[in-house]
Design goal:
The structure holds two protein chains of two kinds. By secondary structure, chain A is an alpha/beta fold. Chain A has seven helices and 13 strands. Chain A has a single domain, classed as Rossmann fold, CATH 3.40.50.620. In chain A, the strands form two sheets. Chain A has a nine-stranded mixed beta sheet with strand order 9-8-7-10-6-1-4-5-11, with helices on both faces. A two-stranded antiparallel sheet of chain A has the order 2-3. The longest helix of chain A is centred in the N-terminal third of the chain and has 16 residues. Chain A is globular, with a radius of gyration of 21 Å. By secondary structure, chain B is an alpha/beta fold. Helix content of chain B is 24%, strand content 26%. The longest helix of chain B is centred in the last third of the chain and has 14 residues. Classes of the chains: A alpha/beta, B alpha/beta. The interface between A and B is large, with 77 and 90 residues. Strand 13 of chain A pairs parallel with strand 16 of chain B, so a sheet runs across the interface. The complex binds flavin-adenine dinucleotide (FAD) and adenosine monophosphate. Adenosine monophosphate binds next to helix 1, strand 4, helix 3, strand 6 and helix 4 of chain A.
Chain lengths: 249, 297
């Protein structure tokens, strides 16, 4: 079996992010980058599947050569092989899904596990779009994945609780926070990862050239909340909520 | 060309979605998956698919595709349910999609939050036809007008995925995203019983909903559907009470548009106080029971 895990290089979720001088984008100087946390959960899940069954894990990232850092990290976690689809171009989610569709044509995976959402653009779109393009079943926001033979059973988080879906493979699964806790990467893994294959390919190699039809034209800071105040006691809090803010009776 | 609003699980989504559609000044239709469609929001047509339960996303997108071809803009709520099927529908239609729209500038330009709400992005869609998920908390009541008759419609929902079970904790409290008051608890709450007694108890006294941080949900103390934040639910109640919550970017992303924010935290330097209208530096285990006593009397 082959599992494909797409992963995106994103700013460290705990970093403080600023705008650049002309406000056209975020300031990246000095910013730490990581594997998108949901994608790291996806890599971890694939590795756990591999620990129980024979399979090959291929990780893929679309972007500039620096994405190799994140691909190497995924190899250190336990992926077998990495692909960098090297490009400077910006894509919208549908564009990324079309590139991944090209990667699927080439790799023919039995399953794709990926993040539900990139924590920079917060789109939550690519997995669902890829599933539609390939006409494959999807299970988003997964908190549990169980393989049996040629099908997979996925428990997913919903607005009101959880539900379990069953679908034939190949299928696309997107991860939620409760699926697993990614392992700490030990030194031997990092050393071993240096010798694992990492191939660079171009959009032309995949025969894809998607347009970008959703563009960010400006980023700005939301208006700050006006400063509040500390109260000294529960009595003062209740009085303030009743008489000043008038939000309770 | 007209707009189609998709009302998935929650009929009350029709109100903010109609407000979204009206900001275009173009005619719009409504399709309700469950039950009768809402009349009186100014839709040209109200269609009802009369499903018992909405099918999984693959069948849903298959069934909706044909109908949606006839509309320039297709929009639904950015609930977890909407986030599941709307992008799939967009790709099935080969259309781009804009997620979590909070403001409409013109026919092709929107505002949406990015980077956990740290920035508001102005986003332009270079296409006449696209799909939008709307952040319902950002749109209010549209003018009520006219009555539209509801027409039944039958759509070909079919797909390879089977839903084998559903588990819902329910609990009888108002829905988080619609409640007027939300009381949320953070990491210092150590067990489900305390969560229910303090967070649930205070929420009940105020007629509100209970919420939680990721820490509490990860610890198995509150169910996943109560997680408020960047990757959970986004709420904007009149009153949000954050008890034992540090104020991480990811949590704040889900609650900072609340009208009045109260923080109860033992650490006077906790970042949550930068967002709070009223801050109380106290242990939540004593502050909340005292608050409940005083509200009762
Ligand atoms: C990819 C990703 C997605 C995430 N998505 C979300 C999300 O959607 N929602 C979310 O909430 N988080 C999310 N997080 C997690 C987030 O970064 C924080 O870790 C989390 O919000 C912290 O929860 P907390 O405030 O309960 O805990 P902590 O940060 O540990 O804060 C606990 C607070 O309680 C105070 N305290 C301690 N004891 C008491 C007491 N007895 N009485 C009163 N106060 C007390 C402490 O001073 C402290 O400020 C995400 C993280 C990542 C990486
Ligand atoms: N440039 C990229 N390279 C590889 N995978 C990506 C890229 N962008 C997005 N993805 C994948 O798509 C998921 C959802 O992203 P999004 O729809 O942008 O929130 C991410 O978690 C990744 O798995």
């Amino acid at each position: 079996m082959r599992i494909l895990v797409p992963l995106k290089r994103v700013p460290d979720p705990y970093a403080r992010i600023r705008l650049n001088a002309d406000g056209s984008d975020i300031e990246t100087t000095g910013l730490k980058f990581e594997i998108n946390p949901f994608d790291e959960i996806a890599v971890e899940e694939a590795v756990r599947i591999k620990e129980r069954a024979t399979c090959e894990i291929v990780v893929v990232s679309i972007g500039k050569p620096v994405c190799e850092e994140q691909l190497r990290k995924a190899l250190a976690i336990g992926a077998d092989r990495a692909l960098l689809v090297e490009t400077d171009a910006a894509f919208d989610s549908l564009g990324i899904a079309k590139v991944l569709n090209g990667v699927m044509d080439r790799e023919k995976p039995d399953m794709v596990i990926m993040g539900k959402q990139a924590i920079d653009d917060d789109n939550n779109q690519v997995g669902q779009m890829l599933a539609a393009i390939r006409g494959l079943p999807q299970a988003t926001f997964a908190s549990e994945v169980a393989l049996s033979g040629n099908s997979v059973s996925v428990t997913r988080e919903t607005d009101t609780g959880q539900e379990t879906l069953e679908m034939p493979l190949p299928a696309i699964i997107t991860t939620d926070l409760r699926l697993n806790e990614p392992r700490y990467i030990a030194l031997p893994g990092i050393i071993k990862a240096r010798n694992k294959p990492l191939d660079r390919i171009s959009l032309a190699d995949l025969g894809v050239d998607p347009e970008c039809r959703v563009r960010v034209t400006e980023l700005r800071q939301p208006p700050p909340r006006k400063a509040g105040r500390k109260v000294d006691s529960v009595d003062e809090l209740i009085a303030a909520l009743r008489d000043e803010a008038r939000v309770i009776r | 060309m007209a707009i189609l609003l998709l009302i998935a699980l929650d009929a009350s989504d029709a109100v903010p979605l109609a407000a979204f559609a009206k900001s275009y000044g173009k005619p719009f239709d409504i399709l309700c998956f469950l039950g009768e469609g809402p009349a009186g929001l100014g839709a040209e047509r109200v269609l009802a698919a009369n499903l018992d339960a909405p099918p999984p996303a693959d069948a849903l997108a298959n069934g909706l595709k044909g109908l949606c071809e006839g509309y320039a803009v297709v929009a639904g709520a950015a609930s977890m349910f909407g986030k599941d099927y709307l992008p799939r529908l967009a790709a099935a239609l080969d259309r781009p999609m804009v997620s979590d729209v909070t403001e409409v500038h013109d026919a092709n330009t929107f505002t949406r939050p990015m980077y956990a709400g740290n920035f508001l992005a102005r986003v332009q869609v270079d296409s006449e036809r696209f799909v939008v998920s709307v952040r319902t908390t950002a749109f209010s009541e549209p003018d009520r007008e006219g009555l539209s008759a509801v027409e039944a419609i039958s759509l070909p929902f079919d797909g390879p995925t089977r839903r084998v079970s559903v588990s819902e904790s329910g609990g009888g409290r108002p829905d988080l995203t619609q409640a007027r008051v939300v009381v949320s608890g953070g990491r210092p709450i150590r067990d489900a019983e305390t969560f229910e007694k303090l967070i649930g108890g205070l929420a009940d006294l105020l007629g509100g909903a209970a919420g939680a941080t990721r820490a509490v949900v990860d610890n198995g103390i509150a169910p996943n559907e109560l997680q408020v934040g960047q990757t959970g639910k986004v709420v904007a109640p009149d009153l949000y009470i954050a008890a034992g919550i540090s104020g991480s970017t990811q949590h704040v992303a889900g609650m900072k548009d609340s009208k009045v924010i109260v923080a109860i935290n033992t650490d006077p330097a906790a970042p949550i106080f930068e967002f709070a209208d009223y801050g109380l530096v106290q242990d939540l285990h004593t502050a909340i029971p005292e608050m409940m006593d005083k509200l009762r009397s």
